[in-house]
Amino acid sequence: MYLHIVLFYLMYSFSPSVGVWGETMATSASSKLNKAVKQQYMELPQGGRAQAMYIWVDGSGEELRCKTRTLDSEPKTVDDLPEWNFDGSSTFQSEGSNSDMFLIPVAMFRDPFRRDPNKLVLCEVLKYNRKPAETNQRFMCKQIMRMVDSSEPWFGMEQEYTLLSTDGHPFGWPTNGFPGPQGPYYCGVGADKAYGRDIVEAHYRACLYAGVQICGTNAEVITRYIKQHHIYIYIYIYIYIYIYIYIT
């Protein structure tokens, strides 16, 4: 989930007209604001305090929500982070008559957007009765993993994403056509092959800064998209993010 957060932020930072994962992104009105004005405030000292952005999965099971809490000092571990709450009736996670939900911090990363001493805090969600929310898949996963603690399992994950323009067209494709045949794009090099490289490099560096165990990236190609018994040749440029996570 952390990689998703970093990637969404970078999409808007580089170009509000570029989307990701099959979503069509409308051009944001905020793209016309002077970003240099914001930067002068972001460089102001924080008086020893820290901003902790609490992030969780909402009732859709896919979308993210967040809100930020001011802490008196920089937290060193997850144990330094207080539990928090939110209104689940506004996130498709509860009814309005009993809407309090609890945010339980479970992972903390350095914030590559606000930078040190600020943190990004990944949370699981509990209902008002302290039972896991329906979309809290981590709770069950944690129970299963505890059953094999002695095995010390290792997991390898690869995460891929596709950059899209505002019209839903893959980023870097010709305006009124298709790219050339498969071949030049896998692990491609050059502005005419590795589209959106600025976003890829920024994403990579942000993950390293935050402390994510990211092992590498490469450009990838998928060549067939099947719909209504017709085969369309779509060459999607995927960036593989290799994460190696050790779970105990």
From TrEMBL:
<dbReference type="GO" id="GO:0005737">
    <property type="term" value="C:cytoplasm"/>
</dbReference>
<comment type="similarity">
    <text>Belongs to the glutamine synthetase family.</text>
</comment>
<dbReference type="GO" id="GO:0005524">
    <property type="term" value="F:ATP binding"/>
</dbReference>
<feature type="signal peptide">
    <location>
        <begin position="1"/>
        <end position="22"/>
    </location>
</feature>
<keyword id="KW-1133">Transmembrane helix</keyword>
<dbReference type="InterPro" id="IPR027302">
    <property type="entry name" value="Gln_synth_N_conserv_site"/>
</dbReference>
<keyword id="KW-0732">Signal</keyword>
<feature type="transmembrane region" description="Helical">
    <location>
        <begin position="231"/>
        <end position="247"/>
    </location>
</feature>
<keyword id="KW-0547">Nucleotide-binding</keyword>
<feature type="domain" description="GS beta-grasp">
    <location>
        <begin position="50"/>
        <end position="130"/>
    </location>
</feature>
<protein>
    <recommendedName>
        <fullName>Glutamine synthetase</fullName>
        <ecNumber>6.3.1.2</ecNumber>
    </recommendedName>
</protein>
<dbReference type="InterPro" id="IPR036651">
    <property type="entry name" value="Gln_synt_N_sf"/>
</dbReference>
<dbReference type="GO" id="GO:0004356">
    <property type="term" value="F:glutamine synthetase activity"/>
</dbReference>
<dbReference type="InterPro" id="IPR050292">
    <property type="entry name" value="Glutamine_Synthetase"/>
</dbReference>
<keyword id="KW-0472">Membrane</keyword>
<keyword id="KW-0436">Ligase</keyword>
<keyword id="KW-0067">ATP-binding</keyword>
<feature type="domain" description="GS catalytic">
    <location>
        <begin position="137"/>
        <end position="248"/>
    </location>
</feature>
<dbReference type="InterPro" id="IPR008147">
    <property type="entry name" value="Gln_synt_N"/>
</dbReference>
<keyword id="KW-0812">Transmembrane</keyword>
<keyword id="KW-0963">Cytoplasm</keyword>
<dbReference type="InterPro" id="IPR014746">
    <property type="entry name" value="Gln_synth/guanido_kin_cat_dom"/>
</dbReference>
<dbReference type="Pfam" id="PF03951">
    <property type="entry name" value="Gln-synt_N"/>
</dbReference>
<dbReference type="GO" id="GO:0006542">
    <property type="term" value="P:glutamine biosynthetic process"/>
</dbReference>
<dbReference type="InterPro" id="IPR008146">
    <property type="entry name" value="Gln_synth_cat_dom"/>
</dbReference>
